[in-house]
Amino acid sequence: MKRPLNRDTHIVHLARPPYQDGRRPVNPPVVRASTVDFETLEAMNQARSQAVRGEQSFIYGVRGTPTSFALETLISHLENGAGTKLFSSGLEAIAAVFLGFLKPGDDVLVVDTVYAPVRALLNRFLADRQIQFRFYSPREPDLGALVKPNTRMIYTESPGSVTMELQDVSLVAAAIKDRPDIVIACDNTWSSGFCYRPLEHGADLSIVAGTKYLGGHSDVLMGSVTANEKTLASLNETVGLLGMAVSADDCALVLRGARTLHIRYPAHAQRALAVAQWLEGHDEIVGVLYPPLPSSPDHDLWHSQFEGAAGLFTIELADSKKNNRHVSGFVDHLKLFGIGASWGGFESLALPCDLTGLRSIEDSRHQGSLVRLHIGLEDPRDLIADLDQALAKWAAGVK
Length: 399
Ligand SMILES: *Cc1c(COP(=O)(O)O)cnc(C)c1O
Known about the structure:
- The protein is an alpha/beta fold.
- Helices cover 33% and strands 15% of the residues.
- The chain has a domain at 261-398: Aspartate Aminotransferase, domain 1 (Alpha-Beta Complex).
- The protein has twelve helices and twelve strands.
- Helix 4 (90-101) packs parallel to helix 5 (116-126) and helix 9 runs parallel beside helix 12.
- 45% of the residues are buried.
- The mean pLDDT is 95.
- It binds pyridoxal-5'-phosphate.
- The site of pyridoxal-5'-phosphate has 14 residues, from helix 4.
- It is an enzyme of class 4 (lyase).
């Protein structure tokens, strides 16, 4: 029997162009196309029937190009799914999941620690369309009890935004095993399909912002949704009906980033762990929220289900109101950390996170000032020295 190839080898070898005349470029060509020109009507009809069967078929730019198909293939493999669709951003991918799988009168349960723009999407868009939503605690012990007859989706994100609570997707799936009409969707951006595959734990849809680690260089936006056999036809239909399409140039950039995911991703984690451990021992820090740390309440779950970690975690600074210090007194003094949203690029970032209005359930709140750190590919000794001097200035109240 032939031994199956390991993941890293697949990342390098999958989704490469075919040889033609005994040669090929290493990367799929960037195919910019609206019109696809067929030589015969028969060729066109054949290609169209392939598309109708849900196969990747190059018939018109909106329906995908050889470049987007290559990226879809790679992500499907990472996520171990039946098929993947691409979107112009992570947020668009999430919106497509809600649009495609919910209708007026339906109810959706959403984890309270959801990515903040999703909360706005629910409040401002779904509510107007008579779709009910309810938030549940990331620590909810009995999700099954919250499910109603009209519940059609459980939307989760693991780990949760900012506060990093992990979700055991297999427990979510077990809680609704008698309800095949409910779809479980999971935002898997932190893992980027690299260290966790929600579909293997019972999720039906896995969403990744390729903007983060897949692109990996802070220069491109991309979203993906990977479906299992149960959800693929609906996902394909939604994307087709709404005419959602991505540019071949962006796909090529993300594909280029993805070829080194297995080198970059663990390098972020290794540096992040060194920095997180150092921060844990610092007097001004009351908490480091990062599942790979043994102090994390989710450490055991992380250890049993995850094969690695992202370089993204959150620190909690000693209460700023009590001692009248503002978080800017820390962040503004950092020299190697940019101040910015997004993450997953090669550079380190710091972002103060105020959870006001972003949690509906009391138990997912924290007391101190939260700062999310993305640890880039710098030498961690330099990052630690930078954090050390900024924390000293914060402690001294230097403006
Ligand atoms: C960044 C992010 C998104 C959205 O991705 P964009 O491409 O920036 O729209 C969605 N979910 C999570 C968890 C993210 O971090």
